[in-house]
Input
Amino acid sequence: MIVGIDKGAAPVGIAEAKAWLRLGGSQDDAVVAGLIRSAVDLCEAFTGQMLIVRTVTEEMPLGAGWIGLVRRPVVAVEAVTGLAGDEETGLDAEAWRVEIDRDGAARLRVDDPGAATQLRIAYRAGMAAEANAVPEAIRQGLARMIQHLHGARDDAPEVPAIIAALWQPWRRVGLGAGARR
Output
């Protein structure tokens, strides 16, 4: 279960989004910022990937074997903490192993959990280090999605075909989140 994701920077700025929407002034900045967040959430759900590298924290029961991390593409696992009731114990790097596939899917195995019955895993995931490194087709799709959300305020937020076509090359689909190996 994901317990936290750092917000980080948006791949499209307010000024860029307002230019697509043909809005001026600063009175609509909060509305546009909300549209940007919604468009990014929809893009990340559609592609199955986080756009900009940020820290994710997951908690899960400790099980035997490999544990799949939910978000991708995983860049690095930063810390693994064992949880037993109210006790928290940081696990040494020798107590666990991580495997990260080429597509960014990652698995973690804890060999020496001590008294822990649950784990808290902090890791970094995302396809680009900063906004300008996000592929331009994704950024173009985000700008169009912001425009679509602004124009279709009362409709369900579905991804139009033109935007899906822009995002499709980066779509990663799995058989289940956190699948074990």
